[in-house]
Amino acid sequence: MVFLLTAFGLFMLSCCGYSTRSLLPDHMQRIHIKFFENRTLKPGLDEMATNAVTDAFRSGSNLRIVDEGTADLVLEGSVSGYSKDPHTYTSDQTILEYKITIRYSVRCVDKLRNEVFWEGDVSDWALYDTDEEQGIREAVRKTAERLLTRILTNW
User: What band does 2 get if pLDDT is binned at 50, 70 and 90?
Assistant: First the structure.
């Protein structure tokens, strides 16, 4: 009886794995990430987004980052949204925390098939109390990670 329960448990565990790496077509091994455009009024988001997306792909995927000429996928995008809104207040309406929201608009082209592999918008947010730049960096990073997941799973 114990053997059957153990075998069933191992079988169930082997069926429940999750990986984004295996969901891409086999021919997709290399990606080129173009420099993001900044379509907001907040300066510096283009460079921050490009670096965050590059870091996310470098650490969270098995795709090699290469120049455009040798890439299987080309990712181009922009920072299309930035907002800073009060989030948490005291009883006398003093703001304690702000919420920074970042949105990317992205297009990822499969060069082998000459078609759009994934296109869309992704966004995420972060809270901060005193260090606005830290809040922006966190929101940019989280949005890049969300983008990575969306592209690798192609949902």
Answer: low
In the DSSP assignment, the letter for residue 92 is T
**What span, in angstroms and rounded, lies between the C-alpha atoms of 87 and 96?**
8
Q: How far apart are CA 109 and CA 28, in angstroms?
A: 11
Best CA proximity match to 51, nearest among 140, 146, 149 = 140
**Backbone torsions φ then ψ of 39, nearest 5 degrees:** -105, 20
**Residue 18, pLDDT score:** 47
Closest C-alpha among 7, 23, 35 to residue 148: 23
- For residue 73 the two structure tokens come to 């996928």
Spans of all domains in the chain: 28-153
Confidence of residue 103 (pLDDT cuts 50, 70, 90): very high
103 Rama sector, left if φ>0, alpha if ψ -120 to 50, beta otherwise: beta
Q: Are the beta carbons of 103 and 80 closer than 8 angstroms?
A: yes
**pLDDT at residue 21 in the model:** 45
Tokens representing residue 51 in the block: 């670096």
> Homologous superfamily of 28-153 in CATH?
Lipoprotein like domain (3.30.160.150)
